[in-house]
Design brief:
Blueprint (H helix, E strand, L loop, with lengths): L7 H9 L4 E2 L6 E2 L7 H6 L25 H5 L6 E7 L4 H10 L3 H18 L8 E4 L4 H7 L3 H13 L8 E3 L12 H8 L3 E3 L10 E9 L3 H11 L5 E9 L3
Helix pairs in contact: 4-5, 5-7
The structure holds zinc ion (2 copies).
The site of one zinc ion has 7 residues, from helix 2.
Length: 247
């Protein structure tokens, strides 16, 4: 796949410089490069407060706690997980149109919002050395035709100048959908050994990696990938997603 995919994000960005486009949510014509009108931008289900470690939304109660109870008891193998949106309307439908109907313009818009958040988060501090889109198993990649996490990462990479680590790891186990598994034990077992590092040489001078995905729900995928990355001696791992869902 690497190097042979059409570069949808670059094509989309160029086109939008010249042609007004409909808002991806309400279809009103907008001149915004992001194809998102001001009203719909403001109405997106932004996460205002979340657990600093796992990114799960926390009640905006004014109380000063930054971690959920689970993370206080059971620390995760990465520094933080940051999700931009609640997995609710209209983001849930937008992600389905992006992922299952290949509406890559929607992915472009949402990825740019992630890039904005990246630039804020790492302003004045050291950025990750690499962006790592969560790899898809080759059978899923063949069925879908593209990896949504890679499309998001391409936009973030271009905006932040952080190199893409596409192809460094692969998904070697064709796992079941995490949301379909009812227990945490089954989800953990499902993801165990799911990823493998295939280009160890390219990781020699890498200390800090940002994992990127469209939706994080159970953390089992992120934990499994982070454990594989950690096994290669990477010291800092951050996790980013467009939507942070809860079961
Ligand atoms: Zn709109
Ligand atoms: Zn937490």
């Amino acid at each position: 796949m690497k190097g042979t995919e059409p570069d949808f994000t670059r094509w989309s960005a160029k086109l939008r410089e010249f042609v007004p486009s409909p808002c991806i949510v309400c279809s009103v014509t907008t001149n915004s490069v992001l194809s998102l009108c001001h009203h719909c931008y403001a109405d997106l289900p932004w996460i205002s407060k979340s657990c600093h470690t796992c990114g799960i939304p926390l009640p905006d109660s004014g109380l000063h706690f930054n971690y959920c109870a689970r993370c206080l008891i059971d620390p995760l193998p990465f520094s933080f997980c940051k999700g931009l949106f609640h997995y609710s309307s209209p983001v849930k439908k937008l992600l389905a149109r992006f992922k299952f109907h290949a509406q890559l313009d929607i992915g472009f818009t949402l990825s740019n919002l992630m890039a904005n958040s990246f630039l804020n988060e790492y302003a004045g501090i050291s950025k990750p050395d690499l962006l790592l889109p969560v790899p898809l198993h080759r059978s899923k990649l063949k069925r879908r035709g593209f990896n949504q996490a890679l499309e998001i990462s391409k936009v973030v990479s271009r905006r932040t100048a952080i190199p893409l680590g596409d192809g460094l790891f692969e998904k070697v186990k064709n796992t079941q959908s995490q949301a379909e598994l009812e227990s945490a034990v089954k989800r953990k077992r499902n993801q165990r050994g799911a990823f493998s590092c295939i280009e160890i040489e390219r990781l020699k001078s890498v200390n800090h990696i940002a994992i990127i995905d469209d939706v994080v729900t159970t953390m089992a995928t992120a934990k499994s990938l982070a454990a594989t990355i950690e096994g290669q001696g990477i010291r800092q791992i951050d996790v980013w997603c467009l939507a942070r869902a809860t079961l």
